[in-house]
Amino acid sequence: MSAAVERPLLFLDVDGPLIPFGPAQPSPTESVPDHGNPLLSRLDPTVGARLLALGCSLVWATTWMEEANAVVAPRLGLPKLPVLEWPEADEPSLHGLHWKTRPLVGWARGRPFVWVDDEIGAVDRLWVAAAHPGPALLHRVDPARGLQDSDFLALSDWLAALDRPS
Ligand SMILES: [Mg+2]
């Protein structure tokens, strides 16, 4: 990819991909104070560097909103990131469409993007295919396990293919 081309966006969910819901694993951050939130001990501090290495512009797409910058980012070694906003409460919602889908397509404005989330469904895929003119990867993560090697492989493969002239 040339420097003149904008990097792909990567919309990042917290609960599920970064904080898995499965049985607690022995955690590398167990000795780090959790500031009253035991879920934070489930964060894998090595994931931040792996996300940055993908070369995307990261955007929080999570109900944690600014809290993701306050308490999640520092534990992963991530900088402060922009935050996807909730949609207006009076916007009509489509059955089966995730609340994040329309705002993130709007944010992307046709720019290539990856969306990493445990709640991506068929309606979201259909919506993005119809409403987003650029390449998009909707990557569903197993919330019981969180981001794994296989997920990073899928993301880097897709991004590498995006870089290759067709
Ligand atoms: Mg989630």
SSE topology sketch:
Layout: E1 9-12, H1 47-53, E2 57-60, H2 66-76, H3 101-108, E3 113-117, H4 122-131, E4 136-140, H5 149-163
Parallel strand pairs: 1-2, 1-3, 3-4
Residues 13, 15-16, 117-119 line the site of magnesium ion.
Features:
5 helices, alpha/beta, single chain, HAD domain-containing protein, 166 residues, binds magnesium ion
Protein model, in words:
With 166 residues, the protein is α/β, with parallel strands linked by helices. The chain has one domain (14-163). Helices cover 31% and strands 11% of the residues. The protein contains five helices and four strands. Strands 2-1-3-4 form a four-stranded parallel beta sheet, sandwiched between helices. The longest helix is centred in the last third of the chain and has 15 residues, at 149-163. The chain is globular. The mean pLDDT is 89. Magnesium ion binds at residues 13, 15-16, 117-119.
Brief description of this entry?
31% of the residues lie in helices and 11% in strands. It has helices at residues 47-53, 66-76, 101-108, 122-131, 149-163; strands spanning 9-12, 57-60, 113-117, 136-140. The protein has a 4-stranded parallel β-sheet, sandwiched between helices.
Quaternary: single chain
The neighbouring-strand order within the major sheet is 2-1-3-4
- The end-to-end distance, rounded to whole angstroms, is 12 Å
The outline comes out as globular
**Mean pLDDT across residues:** 89
Which structural category do the helix and sheet elements fall into?
A: alpha/beta
Report strand %. 5-15%
Ligand list: magnesium ion
- Write down how many β-strands occur, each being a DSSP E stretch of 2 or more residues: 4
Largest sheet: 4 strands, parallel
Question: Regions with pLDDT < 50 over 5+ consecutive residues?
Answer: none
Q: Write down the secondary-structure element order.
A: EHEHHEHEH
Estimate the helix proportion, in percent.
25-40%
Number of helices: 5
The whole-angstrom Rg is: 16 Å
Number of individual domains: 1
